[in-house]
TrEMBL record, chain A:
Ranges annotated as spanning the membrane: 28-49, 61-84, 96-122, 190-215, 235-256, 268-301, 307-331
Membrane topology reported for the UniProt record: Multi-pass membrane protein
Name used for this protein in its record: ABC transporter permease
Domain of life according to the entry: Bacteria
Location in the cell: Cell membrane
GO molecular function terms noted in the UniProt entry: transmembrane transporter activity
Amino acid sequence: MADAVRSSARAPARDQFQLSRLLRAREAGVFFALLAICLFLTFATDGFLTSVNLLNVGRQISLLGIMSIGMTFVLISGEVDLSVGSTYASSGLSTGMLICLGWPLLPALGVGLLTGLAIGLINGLLSTYGRLPSLIATLGMLSMVRGTALILTSGQPVTVNTRNGALPDVLATFEYMGQGYLFGTVPMQLVFFIIIAALAWVVLSATTFGFRVFAVGGSAKAARVSGIHVNAVKIWAFILMGVLAAFAGILSLAFLPSGQAGRTGLGLELDVIAATIVGGASLSGGEGTILGTILGVLIIGVMRNGLVLLGVSPFVQEFMIGLVIVIAVGIDKWSTRRRA
Amino acid sequence: MKDMANSDFIAIAGVTKRFPGVLALDHIAVSFRSGEVHAVIGENGAGKSTLMNILAGDLQPTEGEIRVDGAPTRFASALESRAAGIVVVYQELALCPTMTVAENIMMSDLATRSVVSFVPRATMRAEARAALARLGMGALDPDTKVGRLSVAEMQLVEIARAIRQRARVVVLDEPNSALSRRESERLFDVVRQLREEGVTVIYVSHHLHEVLHLADRITVMRDGRTIETLDNENLSEDRLIRAMVGRDLGNTAPWHRNPAASSEDAPIVLSIENLTAPGLSDISFDVHAGEILGIGGLPDSGKDGLGEALFGLHERTGRVAIDDKDLRPADPLASIRDGMSFVPADRRGASGLLSMSVADNVISASLARFSVGGMLRRAAIRREARGQVARLDARIARLGQKLGTLSGGNQQKIILGRSLVTNPRVLILHEPTRGIDVGAKAEIYSILRGIAGEGVAIVMISSEIPELIVNAERVLVLRAGRISGEMRGEGINEEAILARAMAS
């Protein structure tokens, strides 16, 4: 027995793809759940399996998706970020206000993204050198960041249009980012999501940074013995999260194109964490994939879309989404315990 | 002895405990009388803890019999053992730190009441105070939160709780490793008090002079067997040490007998001068190229923090230098770069990345070498991992297998592989074979000798004396944070190591 196992270690062919391994992969369960929901909706509704509807779903999930990508890094590193909804609101609003002050697009975008970066940096510093649990640190930041946005906007809505001072060509590009279509068919938000997801997939699975994120979340002590700077890795994960939340917030304002510090992105952090967890990331760190997160985001997006197509009341929709989260994570936990 | 058997309260006969691949207890025979202080001594791994776990009901014997008051008994759980009046006070105390002293002492009374019953605070406080007073602890405020007490006070609170539960046997497992001299004295008074009241005190300890000071009888364990039970009359520390030594070294011949192992003339690689760190003061020693230096000592000797201090995981002062280049303190990455690698004791929690693959673990301390511009070189990683797996003869199914799914021995081989990939000049190992089966131990020893043969200086910190004897060319023994003895070659034996670690 031992010999058989040993010899197989030296047969490289066995290291390659195997169907059974593919089926046992963490993403498999989520994928089949998504497939089942899609099949059901295909037969139960008229409008689900049409390119118009699917592209519409794609646009609806994009902002959630972009943020969930960031959350995947934070969760794998063993932390959590509750401030993302506030970051989303404040960054979008700062970019919007600057555009209304007649700023060109790039500096306005830059300030918005820098806002997210700064929030991420503060989250990271508080959760590492500040020795606060990230749950507490980012809970505090959730309020402080939204409070700052309320102070800066005096609680008034920010609407980006030429009447409020935006330059016409700046406004056109800005709106294209949020409302436009690539080749007239693919929503720009979805394009951004796909590009970010692809980059994140490479970063997480093929770079030393991705490696370190997994190591730090898997065991901070063991990572330290390997010479990995645990605090630095976690801080960068928070910064990445902050920038992605800021970018999603900017796109949201470009889509609507109006936001209000007291309303925009309220409670969004819970959707983001839910999608990421459904996708297989673990709250205790060390586990998670970009593919899983995309599937998790899709499940939530398809569910919302399907429930609308089925004409289910919004109240029941909210209930169903919660049910899906509990079932999806429950199945994952029960099956891991069986394996252990 | 036999004619006194009727006063035996607990009699253990022929108790054997097998774990997969390990015979932890081998036909134990020992009896405990009412109203005696009975010390159990033995080296690390002699089986003391396993025996206490069986008494506590946490483990069940594979075979053999335990009689309580003459009736054969089997403790299926800790609750049953408690019901029989046996209370174990572990080193890791089982108190609730956020509750008060009174609440902790009265916990079992509270637990057995019906949920809705009214708990009179005043009664609780009074009863707790009475229990404390019996231990000479009347001054302790029952309303203090347990988390704010010293370790010594917590131990006494736990003993007070045991008395409340009408304990007939109190097991104290290494009670004094965290106590000051005065606190120890108070504990001894309490132990004597318990004896006066007819309670059996089983006292597990490494500290021979205390055992001689306190115990009525002393049972010596070695290799899972009870060697002898001695009445404490005219005994000396030497006499006890002689009874404790003689452990089976297995088939491995001590490495120092091999002429190839001599490194006295080799250049010094690691030099340590006046190292002071938590639990350690003023440590100085050198390690030569190709030398395996063993570090021994009791759990509270400071040896368990040595690896962390050298590697830069703990704060330190003093000089640590490799090839005469000073290492930066508190910077593990710099330590690795300057040629030091560390394998911590806690393989599951602190050493291996259990949720990551074998290949990832192998290169996790050498990321710079296996990446270009931040991108991992997957092909090179697999090649290196495959090479290390073959060299260390680790039994794995796939390179992508998670480390946590391997056996202890194979995990440790992979972690050694991680160290080797960094091309270390100095390899620091802490408990390198803890929890590993005998066969894998021998394999790891031969791997370590191979590494030393390539000129690496190895520091092996271990609680297992046979491991030091079999592998080390030179052994340093620590006691109370300082080096208490050094031996080399034929001078390395169990008696010498134990005497320097334990004797006062």
